[in-house]
Amino acid sequence: MELYTHAYIVAGSSDDARNLAAALICERGGAEPCGVCAHCRKARAGIHPDIETVTTPRDKRQISIEQARALVATANIAPNEAHARVFILDPADALGVNAQDALLQLLEDPPEHVQLILRTDAPGSLIATVRSRCRVVTGSVAKTVATERVTELADAFLDAARHGAAALTRFSFELEKLDRADVAPFLDELRKRTATLARDYARGDRTVSAEFIATLRRAVGECAEYLEYNVGTPHIAAKLCAELSTD
Ligand SMILES: [Zn+2]
User: Fold this and answer.
1) What is the C-alpha separation between 147 and 143, in angstroms, rounded?
2) Distance, CA 118 to ligand 1 centroid (Å)?
3) Which of 20, 68, 77, 203 is most solvent-facing, going by the fewest CB within 10 Å?
4) Distance (Å) from CA 51 to ligand 1 centroid
5) 83 CA distance to ligand 1 middle (Å)
6) What architecture does CATH give domain 7-138?
7) How confident is the prediction along the chain (247 residues), in pLDDT tens digits per residue?
8) 3-state DSSP call for residue 117?
9) How far apart are CA 75 and CA 89, in angstroms?
């Protein structure tokens, strides 16, 4: 995953937030922490000097504006060991509007080394100006990346299907590389797209023909069945693409 942002909203558990924090400073720089480098090990033990968690003080229900200001002040200090300094606000919905306002400047113009993670069950409770500056991660980063990959692949498949047999043949090689675990979500995504296409068709949209929709529905259904019988990914990819090749 491209870590192009300085701020994330993690709509998931505290573990998901800590996992992302470790990934952001991991030496390997992937979507998931490698778990073996020094940064990952310290992060897991909860002793990494560049990961700081800000939470509600004991007996309080809110993260105070003073805590938010202290975070902003600390953010300017360079990291100790890692290339980044990560702040986890958990739960971020405990930030009042004033505390969120205090963070805005940091969100708008963060020092290069700063990463912020706002962990919350209710992203909608954060003010819009904060939300618009964060990338939302649902659950784990790995799950979000997988979902993005599957969505992109479904787009690419439908695009290829509209362009005919040659495009589909090229695409089937792409599809063969799909992780086994992603095949079912991919077919699910196609099923949803088919339903949308059918609904649009019923409303008079003729971007695709009724035959195309019917073929797609049948092919996706059959591939889902194949999957249950443990048929390999290349075979499913080939079948899906062959079914939709009409020219
Ligand atoms: Zn690591």
Assistant:
1) 6
2) 21
3) 203
4) 14
5) 13
6) 3-Layer(aba) Sandwich (3.40)
7) 444 589 999 999 999 999 999 999 999 877 788 899 999 999 999 999 999 999 999 999 999 999 999 999 999 999 999 999 999 999 999 999 999 999 999 999 999 999 999 999 999 999 999 999 999 898 887 777 778 888 889 999 999 999 989 999 999 988 888 888 889 989 999 999 999 999 999 999 999 999 999 999 999 999 999 998 988 999 999 999 999 997 6
8) strand
9) 13
